[in-house]
Specification:
This protein has about 375 residues and is mainly alpha-helical. It has helices spanning about 35-45, 45-55, 60-75, 80-85, 95-110, 115-140, 155-165, 170-185, 190-200, 205-215, 225-230, 240-250, 270-285, 290-305, 310-320, 330-350, and strands spanning about 20-25, 30, 35. It starts with 20 loop residues before the first strand and ends in a 26-residue tail after the last helix. The chain binds acetyl coenzyme *A and oxaloacetate ion. It catalyses: oxaloacetate + acetyl-CoA + H2O = citrate + CoA + H(+).
Length: about 375
């Protein structure tokens, strides 16, 4: 039996129904439409999982091939969006670029009718990697990349190919595929709930997804993978990491990449990404980063019984694949757009505007004081 959750932050309260995902039902499990995350991460490609979430069932071979072709055909960015991305400064945060890019696309390709929702979701899924990498490569390397990439069918490989202007390394493509699956969906987390609240007002898909991006940006949610990397990067040995972590705990600092609002024992995504991180560390001949990460995991468990969430070993895994830290959370967006869009559709299918109540804590009755008479 999972331990009871209660307290602030609406913890433990049901805020609606979903057929998309279960989180921590048995303390640590995660399923998408009934399929265990371990099975999906091992056997599926990300497009198969996206189809499962957005269309309600696993695709057969023909459906998957058609779906991949459809997503590939949607990769090109409109010229006006490229021009807008070129105006965003190099030192902007990539999550702000994602937010603007998504919102700007909503101006150019507005969802005017909910009958367009599947196509709008597919278009966003196909273009979000291009939005971030077109801006990144233009602002950092001065190149205007081709975002169509017809020789790379998978979204995972497409991301890496646009980043490195090279054919993706097969191992890296495999890890990226697993990572996108792990990040695709997670029930009523903060960003998905944001998207659902927006959807409940009958707003458009781009607004819902833009809101989701804003909520994911924070370090208590998706931004933790970036924050975890910034934390572990300076630590050159496990002993140095242990000493620094103990200091943080003594100072009552939050350690990014640890703990979870729902899981009480472990985050099932951690075992999977940790294994990939280990494999990548061997591939690149890493001398310390994986060992530092493992020591952090041991110390946090020993000291606080806090476990790594999905974000912690993503940091080292992405680093081993040569991905800049600032792109970590945008990758989360490229994956989670599937979950967000599926939740928007589910909310629309059985909608009532989401409007909870609040416990008032202000003054009972206040006396009006004229402007000139105020102290
Ligand atoms: C993909 C994702 O979004 S996963 C989450 C990513 N976020 C992070 O990694 C940020 C770091 N973690 C955290 O801030 C929290 O664990 C959250 C936001 C994920 C969950 O928050 P909560 O549900 O409030 O955590 P929970 O109720 O389990 O906290 C219990 C206690 O452990 C402490 N704690 C929880 N996580 C951490 C942490 N990472 N570092 C230090 N202490 C922590 C809390 O401060 C709390 O202490 P208190 O009782 O003295 O106040
Ligand atoms: O569920 C949560 O609160 C956060 C999380 O792990 C996710 O969104 O993947």
């Amino acid at each position: 039996m999972a331990k009871e959750l209660s307290g602030a932050g609406l913890r433990g309260q049901s805020a609606g129904e979903t057929a998309l995902c279960t989180v921590g039902k048995t303390g640590s499990g995660l399923t998408y439409r009934g399929y265990d995350i371990e099975v999906l991460a091992e056997k599926a490609c990300f497009e198969e999982v996206a189809y499962l979430l957005l269309h309600g069932k696993l695709p057969n071979r023909t459906e998957l091939s058609q779906y991949r072709n459809k997503l590939m055909s949607l990769r090109e960015l409109p010229q006006a969006l490229k021009a807008a991305l070129e105006l965003i400064p190099k030192d902007a945060h990539p999550m702000d670029v994602m937010r603007t890019g998504c919102s700007f696309l909503g101006n150019l390709e507005t969802e005017t009718d909910f009958s367009q929702q599947q196509d709008t979701a597919d278009r966003l899924l196909a273009t979000l990697p291009a939005i971030i990498l077109y801006w990144y490569r233009f602002s950092h390397d001065g190149v205007r990349i081709d975002t169509s990439n017809p020789s790379v069918p998978s979204l995972a490989g497409h991301f890496l190919a646009m980043l490195h202007s090279d054919t993706p390394n097969p191992l890296h493509e495999q890890v990226m595929n697993a990572s996108l699956i792990l990040y695709a969906e997670h029930e009523f987390n903060a960003s998905t709930f944001t998207a659902r609240v927006c959807a409940s007002t009958l707003s458009d898909m781009h607004s819902c997804i833009t809101g989701g991006i804003g909520s994911l940006r924070g370090p208590l949610h998706g931004g933790a993978n970036e924050a975890a990397m910034d934390m572990i990067e300076p630590w050159k040995t496990p002993d140095e990491a242990e000493a620094a972590l103990l200091d943080k705990l003594a100072n009552k600092e939050k350690v990014m990449g640890f703990g979870h609002a729902i899981y009480r024992e472990r985050d099932p995504r951690n075992d999977i990404i940790k294994q990939w991180s280990k494999r990548l560390s061997e591939e690149v001949g890493d001398t310390h980063l994986y060992a530092v990460s493992e020591r952090c995991e041991a110390v946090m468990w020993r000291e606080k019984k806090l476990f790594c969430n999905a974000d912690f070993f993503h940091a080292s895994a992405y680093r081993f694949m040569g991905i800049p830290t600032l792109l970590f959370t945008p990758i989360f967006v490229c994956a989670r757009v599937t979950g967000w869009a599926a939740h928007v559709m589910e909310q629309r299918a059985n909608n009532r505007i989401i409007r909870p109540s609040a416990d008032y804590t202000g003054p009972e009755k206040a006396q009006w004081v004229e402007l000139d008479d105020r102290p």
